[in-house]
Amino acid sequence: MKRMFYVSRFSRPLSKRDIEQIHGSAVRFNSQHGVTGILVCLGDTFFQVLEGKRAIINQLYHTRIVPDNRHFDVICLKSESGVSQRMFPEWDMRVFDLNDEAEALPMAFRQMLSALLESNYMIAQYTQPSILKMLENGVNPTTVKPRKKHVTVLFSDIIGFSQFAERLNPDDLIDLVNRHAQICIEQVDKNSGQVNKLLGDGVLTYFTDRGTDAALEAATGILKEMERQRRSARDGSPHQLLFAGVGLANGVAYEGNVGSELKRDFTILGNTVNQASRLESLTRRLNLRIIMSEAVVERASPSRNFISLGRHKLIGQSAAMEIFSLKSFAPLNIEKLYAQIDEMLSRS
Ligand SMILES: Cc1cc2nc3c(=O)[nH]c(=O)nc-3n(C[C@H](O)[C@H](O)[C@H](O)COP(=O)(O)O)c2cc1C
Q: Which atom of ligand 1 is nearest to the CA of 93?
């Protein structure tokens, strides 16, 4: 059996009748499918414990509970597999409305629970989706053993960032960095990739081995969306000159926990990650927006219009390798772009 704990927020003020309706349909489904648990309401937050057969709990959570538009921000706090005994064998779904029971619970306990939920939402926003997924599947991320994986790494970085960083005010600078990160995250997520890390103005992401085409799709999506947003930016805004360089590499990487108890990252590292970063840097020298390694081209579907850039020896690599770009993205005159950024910043 599986037991799952999650929290969520009301999407609008919910009346007693609303809660009764949720309770009614929950009991109907749960009693027929061997699900038991409790549902706690506190302020505008739900806290629910569900227990039952693993497949049923997964189906219930993903197809009935998460999509229910009476709540949102549904975050799984914990899930346990191989549960042999129910905590709530008698309750198809017992509701505790703590808002009604001011007397029943000491005030301090209620406040502690609220603070806990609040901090959980904040922490979840800083947590990479793959970690949240592990918690949902009952996996403790801190105990996951390091793994060797074949991946395609996509690294994107803002061109001319040092110029922006020197002269823009903090709000405008963070706004620019967020715009780039937002575009990358959306495109990578849309193509089933993992956003691994935000490194200042850079975004490190990766895709499974069979996801090379998806990685290329995300990369072209990032560049096209940036172009669209540059065109719609208001006159004189730094967003008019927001360009990124994208590097893609394919090969082996190591995935695991890195750091200490004070600061821990679940990350990928290895030569393929370094290659993607070096290829991204090379976009500046070769006046291009996207560069990929030979291994990426070998695994991608042949319909794409790759263009060979010849053999290059990247810093830190023992041998030269053939590298490629995409014909669909015209070369970019980097020196001219730097001069335009300079001029814009001196005007503002
Ligand atoms: C906070 C919350 C808890 C829920 N708990 C359950 C549950 O335990 N079991 C269930 O089948 N549905 C649960 N639901 C889902 C809805 O009650 C249900 O999907 C929706 O009302 C449609 O159900 P119906 O088709 O049976 O009317 C929950 C929804 C919310 C917002």
A: 8
